[in-house]
Specification:
This protein has about 80 residues and is of the alpha+beta class. The protein is about 50% helix and about 15% strand. The chain has five helices and two strands.
Length: about 80
């Protein structure tokens, strides 16, 4: 089984709009590059645990479940 954590794009866009922030400002405040945040936002890359933590700090009081989506792929061989 593979588990991926993806950004909930709609929730993040709403959160930064409410804070009068741009996507670039979010990247600066989280300490990541604007290119990386762009890739995370469009789903071509998945954020690392460290980046997830930084984004949660910037977007408080939103929780992990507000900001991210957990996707599971395949199946666990142990459940066969």
């Amino acid at each position: 089984m593979t588990i991926r954590v993806k950004l909930n794009q709609g929730a993040v866009l709403r959160a930064i709009a409410r804070r009068n922030m741009s996507q670039n400002m979010l990247a600066i405040r989280a300490g990541i590059s604007s290119g990386y945040i762009s890739q995370i936002m469009c789903g071509t890359r998945n954020p690392s645990p460290a980046v997830r933590q930084k984004l949660q700090e910037v977007l408080q009081p939103l929780t992990f479940d507000d900001i991210f989506i957990i996707e599971e792929d395949g199946h666990d061989p142990a459940t066969r």
